[in-house]
C-alpha cells in the first residue's frame, strides 16, 4: 500500500483589519490599517496553490472594540469588507479561530472593561471554568459575524504555564458554543525544537470530551520583513526566510526535514509578517514557498485544515 501524503497546513496568526504591531510596538513605525486588497491578494495566493490551514480572526483586536459592533480607529466599511472577505475567501480553505479576545489586555467579562494585565498573564492563574467562559465569549463573537469558529489560537505563549486548565477550557467552550465533541488549539511553536504531530492534551474520560493541540513545526520565516528599512531589504528578508524553509532545489530546509520525517508540515506565519508594513514582501515569500512545496513534493503532500490534523490525532 503506498504511503499516505504528508499533510501540510498554513497557520496564520493575528488576523485583523488592523496591524497589531502598531499598538504592541509603539516605538516602531508600523502601518495601522491593513488594506482589504491585501486580504484579497492573500486569498488569491492560497487559492492558486491549493493552500489550506488556520486563520485567526480577533474578536476585539488590541482592545479597540468588538468586531460584531465597531472597532475604534477602523472605518465601518473597512471592517465590514474585512469580515465579508473572511467569510467568502478565507473560511472555505481555512479554519477560523479566535486568538483569545484582544491579543492585548484581558477583558473583565462582567463589566466589559479592560484589565491592567495582558491576557497571557491573566490566563496563567485562571481556572478551567474561567477560561471556558472567556474562550466561549470570543467564540460567540465570531459566530455573530458569520464566521463559526473551528478552534482556538493562543496569543503569545498563553496557556503554557497553565495548560491543563487551558486545554480543558478550550474543549468545554467549543462544546458550549458549537456543540463540538472535541476542541483543538494552537499554542506550541516547535520551529527550533523536535517536531511533533498533534496530540491529545486533555480528555474527560466520563464524557469523552477531548482537547487536541496542533503545534507549529516551523518558525515564522517572514517576521523580519516587518522592520526592514527598504523594499529591497524586505524582499531579501523574505527570500532568506523562504530558503530556510525549503531551498530552491528542495534538498534542504525545515520543510524538507519535516517531509523526510513524515511529520505534518505546519507552517507558521503572522498576518503582519505577510503584510510587511505595506510592502507585502512576506506574501511574496509565501507565494514562492508554496510554489516550491508543490513543485518539489507534488502529490506526496496534501494541503489540509488544522482541524483535520486534530481529528487525525483523535484516531491515533
Give a quick rundown of the structure:
This protein has 316 residues and is an alpha/beta fold. The protein has 11 helices and 11 strands.
Layout of helices and strands, plus pairs?
Elements: E1 6-13, H1 20-24, H2 36-49, E2 53-56, H3 76-90, E3 94-98, E4 105-107, E5 114-118, H4 119-123, H5 128-144, E6 151-153, H6 163-178, E7 182-186, E8 199-203, E9 210-213, H7 231-245, H8 254-261, E10 265-270, H9 271-275, H10 281-297, E11 301-303, H11 306-315
Parallel strand pairs: 1-2, 1-10, 1-11, 2-3, 3-6, 6-7, 7-9
Antiparallel strand pairs: 4-5, 8-9
Helix pairs in contact: 2-3, 2-10, 5-6, 7-10
User: How does CATH name the architecture?
Assistant: Alpha-Beta Barrel
CATH homologous superfamily identity: Glycoside hydrolase/deacetylase
Instruction: Please write the string of helix (H) and strand (E) elements.
Output: EHHEHEEEHHEHEEEHHEHHEH
Number of domains: 1
Please identify the structural class as seen in this structure.
alpha/beta
- Quick one: overall form? globular
Helix content: 40-55%
The first-to-last residue Cα distance is: 19 Å
Q: CATH top level?
A: Alpha Beta
How many helices? The count is: 11
Mean pLDDT: 97
Radius of gyration: 19 Å
Flag low-confidence runs. none
**Count of extended strands:** 11
Q: What proportion strand? A: 15-25%
Assembly form of the protein: single chain
Task: Report the major sheet.
Answer: 9 strands, mixed
**CATH topology tier name:** TIM Barrel
Amino acid at each position: 500500500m503506498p504511503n499516505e501524503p504528508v499533510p501540510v497546513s498554513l497557520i496564520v496568526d493575528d488576523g485583523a483589519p488592523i496591524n497589531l504591531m502598531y499598538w504592541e510596538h509603539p516605538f516602531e513605525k508600523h502601518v495601522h490599517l491593513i488594506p482589504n486588497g491585501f486580504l484579497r491578494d492573500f486569498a488569491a495566493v492560497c487559492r492558486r496553490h491549493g493552500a489550506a490551514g488556520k486563520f485567526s480572526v480577533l474578536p476585539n483586536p488590541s482592545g479597540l472594540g468588538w468586531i460584531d459592533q465597531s472597532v475604534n480607529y477602523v472605518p465601518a466599511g473597512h471592517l465590514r469588507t474585512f469580515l465579508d472577505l473572511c467569510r467568502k475567501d478565507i473560511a472555505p480553505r481555512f479554519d477560523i479561530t479566535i486568538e483569545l479576545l484582544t491579543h492585548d489586555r484581558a477583558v473583565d467579562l462582567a463589566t466589559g472593561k479592560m484589565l491592567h494585565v495582558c491576557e497571557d498573564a491573566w490566563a496563567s492563574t485562571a481556572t478551567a471554568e474561567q477560561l471556558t467562559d472567556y474562550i466561549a465569549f470570543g467564540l460567540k463573537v465570531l459566530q455573530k459575524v458569520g464566521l463559526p469558529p473551528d478552534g482556538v489560537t493562543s496569543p503569545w505563549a498563553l496557556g503554557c504555564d497553565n495548560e491543563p486548565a487551558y486545554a480543558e477550557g478550550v474543549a468545554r467552550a467549543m462544546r458550549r458554543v458549537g456543540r463540538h465533541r472535541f476542541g483543538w488549539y494552537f499554542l506550541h511553536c516547535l520551529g527550533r525544537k523536535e517536531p511533533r504531530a498533534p496530540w491529545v492534551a486533555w480528555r474527560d474520560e466520563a464524557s469523552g470530551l477531548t482537547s487536541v493541540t496542533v503545534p507549529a513545526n516551523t518558525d515564522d520565516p517572514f517576521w523580519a520583513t516587518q522592520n526592514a528599512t527598504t523594499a529591497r531589504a524586505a524582499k531579501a528578508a523574505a527570500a532568506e526566510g523562504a530558503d530556510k524553509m525549503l531551498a530552491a532545489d528542495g534538498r534542504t530546509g525545515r520543510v524538507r526535514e519535516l517531509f523526510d520525517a513524515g511529520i505534518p508540515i505546519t507552517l507558521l506565519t503572522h498576518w503582519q509578517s505577510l503584510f510587511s508594513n505595506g510592502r507585502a514582501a512576506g506574501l511574496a515569500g509565501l507565494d514562492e514557498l508554496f510554489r516550491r512545496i508543490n513543485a518539489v513534493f507534488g502529490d506526496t503532500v496534501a494541503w489540509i485544515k488544522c482541524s483535520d490534523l486534530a481529528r487525525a490525532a483523535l484516531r491515533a
